[in-house]
Amino acid sequence: MASPLQTIAALPLRVLSWLGSQGTRGVAAVVFIAAAVPPLGALLRPYLTEAILGLLCISFMRVDLVALYGHLRRPALVATATAWTTIGVPLIVGLIAHATGLTVRAPGLSLALMLQSMASPMMASPALAALMGLDATLVLITLVTSTALVPFTASMFAGLFLGDMLSITPLSLGLKLLGILAASLLAATAIRWVFGAEAIQRHKTPIDGLNIIILFIFAAAIMGDVASDLLAHPLFTISLAALSFAIYFTLLAITTLLFRRIGTERALALGLMVSQRNLGLMLAATAGALPPTTWLYFAMTQFPIHLAPYMLMPIARRLTGRADASKVTAADNVA
């Protein structure tokens, strides 16, 4: 029989296990809680970089190395997906913004859309893909290659489309991205070496719970001012939210169609990754020195990022054949 001390010590693990068992429902709840409690934004904003680091560390820690090597033996797919997310997407967005005159009529929104398109995929993309039972390893590899190219592609597209709209040093952005990648990879490697892959697999549910907590920190740090903006400018705020959903699902649909020949499940995984842009790193790189409209749009993008995995679960259920995909955990299918 467990002693009271043992029971208390086991409580955090039980809480994490319960939270991890919620799957995509937990991810969806994160965004509403973050928006509903504005003081958390100011409290957690200093930890934005640490949250990004933690999300990627978990992704690296849980990757299936066998599947990883398998994808590396077929580099054409990874190269094509990387080119699409780092070059194709920002090029199309930039051309549309200039052709429609958006850069003149709404410079804050145009800046937000360009930064979104120039950003690397979100660090949580592999974990969210795994939560849906999709190919998280393919997403992770493309995430790494795309992030490594961001210093070069961001510099190129900033020069082409942004002009004087943004004061950003691509080299500083690149060094920060590479530093976060290197640190998270080293930390994940150390964890795998100390505890072993079997122990990580055995504790998959509490690790899922930890992942949801880190996602909450990230969302709260970005969404601290959403409630006040909604009260002050309801129509404008709702319009930006609708636009963020439209762009998210447009990127998802186009990417899935472009890569449908590799299989719908894997194409959907890539679509999920391309739709989720790492705006947190862009905020960190610019030190938050952005127009209010840009900040608000960035906050609105958190709704589709956190809600889409839950909304797409019926599709994931059909593709993966899971009995209850709404509760799938982030370690059930990382290959």
TrEMBL record:
Gene3D superfamilies cross-referenced by the UniProt entry: 1.20.1530.20
Name under which the protein is recorded: Na+-dependent transporter
Signal peptide location: none
Species of origin: Bradyrhizobium frederickii
Stretches that traverse the bilayer: 26-45, 51-69, 76-97, 109-131, 138-161, 173-195, 207-224, 236-259
Record keywords, A-Z: Membrane, Transmembrane, Transmembrane helix
